[in-house]
Amino acid sequence: MLFRKTRANGAVDRERDDYLFALNQAQSEYEVAKSCFSEAVEPEIIDEAIFLMQAARKKYSYFLKKVRESSTRFM
């Protein structure tokens, strides 16, 4: 029985690590979009940067929720 529990915890750790990686990527995407927004001059480019910032924020929120859920599992 102990072996199964350890194996399950390993899977949860791997899952959490995957979510943390995706969380960091979403944060990087947000920073890039923010940089594009600050340099944009044309309205179309400003709109695109805003869209990218919103998408990255939503991804970040989703993966943050997943990280928290996976961290509370098996505790």
Q: How would you portray this structure in words?
A:
This protein is mainly α. It has one domain (2-72). It has helices spanning 2-39, 43-72.
Strand percentage, roughly? under 5%
Low-confidence stretches: 1-7
Number of strands: 0
- Binned, the helix content reads over 70%
Largest sheet: none
- Rg, nearest Å: 17 Å
Overall shape: it is elongated
The averaged pLDDT comes out at: 85
Helix-and-strand structural type: mainly alpha
Number of helices: 2
Give the distance, in angstroms, between the N- and C-terminal Cα atoms. Answer: 17 Å
- How many structural domains in the coordinates? 1
Order of helices and strands: HH
In short:
The protein has one domain (2-72). 91% of the residues lie in helices and 0% in strands.
Which features does this protein show?
elongated; 2 helices; 75 residues; mainly alpha
Write the layout of secondary structure elements.
Elements: H1 2-39, H2 43-72
Helix pairs in contact: 1-2
